Fold each of these.
Amino acid sequence: MKLIFEHSIHGKACDILPSSDVPAVELPAKFARSSALNLPEVAEIDVSRHYTALSKRAHGVNCGFYPLGSCTMKYNPRIDEQIAALPQFTEIHPLAPREYTRGCDEAIALCKSLLCEITGMDAMTLQPAAGAHGEFMGLLLIKSYHTERKDFRRTKIIVPDSAHGTNPASAAMCGFTTVSIPSAPDGCVDIEALKSALSDEVAGLMLTNPNTVGLFDKQIIEITRLVHEAGGLVYYDGANLNAIMGVVRPGDMGFDVVHLNLHKTFATPHGGGGPGSGPVGCKAFLAPYLPDSVVRNPETKLQIRSFYGNFLVVIKALCYILTLGAEGIREAAQNAVLNANYLMHLLKDSFTPAYDTVCMHEFVLTLEDFKHETGVSALDVAKTMIDFGIHPPTMYFPLIVHEALMLEPTETESKETLEEAAKVLKRIYAMAHSEPETLKSAPHNAPIGRPDEVLAARQPVLKYGFENDR
Ligand SMILES: *Cc1c(COP(=O)(O)O)cnc(C)c1O
């Protein structure tokens, strides 16, 4: 397939704008480009065809099943998009006089209060643009708290070895050192390991519950109590909230700070890099450190992003919460858990669950023995799923499970879809025994087969080679 730049023909254009009726302004030389901008010159129809062709080569929730574990790739109701597209929301400027922004201010305040209610927190900021950004913000709250109390020794953040990679990365970005603790054989926090990691140098613990292997840690009250007793705070990675919303609240489990991923749990489509939203909530004693808009509060201590964050993503979340209501939110979580358990149950006699117990919204399979038996890896199985029109599950994560495939069906999939997916996976299981070579060279029907991953990592080509760059 050609790139848009390769369709370019000098002189073609697609602007149908009237010519300017105000005098052109000469830019000062220091702001002007020294060479022409490399923009493709194409007609409108070429642009339309190019992007339509590209979209047909991508798999999305609207194309088929997308059980990408930890990412909550659920279907997002159209009504949320329609409401967020209203001009009253899209055409407002963050610096507009207050009397024009009352409705938007109210929507923001309502969304904050609903998210506080769902998480059991007292205050919320909508500024962070994603989960990892929220982690950074939340850890800064923890840091501010210890700094304000002149407790400068607390430089360590405890993270379980099953944690998402962003957790230790965010801790490092905040200047903390991370202490990794091993998980117990049941996949949950090893209380003894936690106890021996705790000290007066620990600023806090980062945890997700249900955790990254899809299990709810039943010792959570004891865990948060131990950290508090040692003078630390507890951070809730809310990426897995889809499993528990409306049922239990991080605030009631003893967490002090949470981030949410509105683009996972609350109806914003994701993939392709944005825009997302990672609100951060906290208990009242941390609220003074929360950022607010620069406009409303110039004295703010932590400004993490401009203005109000990704406002339209917030509107989608608000619309989603209001349309589902308290009952619907709870039902969504319960169905997410039911669907994951049903799919795991259907697969159990072929593939091996890493933890053979009731799961939450996702589960992890280990293909270690399967690989010894057939020579077919988790990667081969994932690639073969593409040929059957299913997006591959998350692979090789969490790191504590070998040959891991992590499936999260979400609540928006029907019983029929889950049964069809199970049938496909069982067929792949049989193929691994009868024709392993087919799996090792999959996918066969996708636009791209198997890229050379080593070469791609060592010599990434991230930019189109324009002639005048060469
Ligand atoms: C997705 C995810 C994150 C990071 O969130 P982003 O919005 O992608 O930055 C953190 N922790 C877990 C467990 C996740 O699944």
Amino acid sequence: MIPRIVPLCQTPAWQKQLNNAISCPTELLRQLDLPNSLLAAANKSAKLFPLKVTHSYLARIEKGNVNDPLLRQILPLIDEQYPHPDYSTDPVGDLDATPVPGLIHKYRGRVLLMATASCGIHCRYCFRRHFPYSEQKPSNNWRQAIEYIKKDPGLHELILSGGDPLSLSNSKLFRLLNLVETIPHIKRVRIHTRYPIILPDRIDQALSGYLHQHRCKVVVVVHSNHPNELDAQVQNALKLLNNNDITLLNQSVLLAGINNNVDTLIQLSERLFSCNVLPYYLHQLDKVQGAQHFAVTDMQAKTLIKALRHQLPGYLVPRLVRENSGEPSKQPILG
Ligand SMILES: *Cc1c(COP(=O)(O)O)cnc(C)c1O
Ligand code: SF4
């Protein structure tokens, strides 16, 4: 038998899938059998914040359904063009809490590192849609950020966010996490990522194996907004993490027309739990310019959370919160 030669620097399958993500509105509408009447608006709003969606996520969208809850998270609409006086480009005050480029230190004991500006999907409601990543890029291989964390023994948890930290290749990510391992006061590493949801192949053996043997306790916070996002492949990716002793939590954003009804939120919690994920936060939308059509009133949000509390065990009810700039933590909204 002829031995198979495997090239050392082979591009991983997930990276190829990411390179093939759809960014062209015409292509999106064609693949999903959607009417061309949506095209002009999609093109226009994609100029403000580009369209980006993986084929994996696309496969979970119902063809021909303009109101599909997954489609609505990624399709650029004309509504994004309307300015609103209460909505800004830095709604949570991140730029005021940046001691060194790429690091956000707002809350005690925890610090957030924007490991990369890149995401595997572009969510239309994203509060970072206007973030000036190019000016905030962590430079010198994170040296400044790591130095800052080393100097503050009151920090016990490093949060990797972005963008999406799993956009980094395994080798880059492991290099960063090896540095973190040398900081004795860091006990926990938390990774905020949408990859298990939008490109489950990103969760490969090498990644979960690496996280398993890390000195710190690893928590992965996924970001799922709708039960239709959680198919068998996503479930497998999440189970692989869970089998490697990684704690799995979910955060969602409460979004009008997507998940602002009791049945959807109940199903989301139930399905998350069947994937070994506990619901953590349900966020009220950050008031970012261009996302106002996703807003749900506090009154409705409280009614929804009350209904969840009546119908689910306590551990399946997420905490309803909002982020106000200048506060020492995310603020609970009590129903
Ligand atoms: C949300 C957030 C955190 C984490 O807050 P938790 O309540 O611990 O989940 C930390 N830093 C920043 C900048 C955040 O936005
Ligand atoms: S994956 Fe997260 S950071 Fe990236 S666009 Fe979506 S919500 Fe924003």
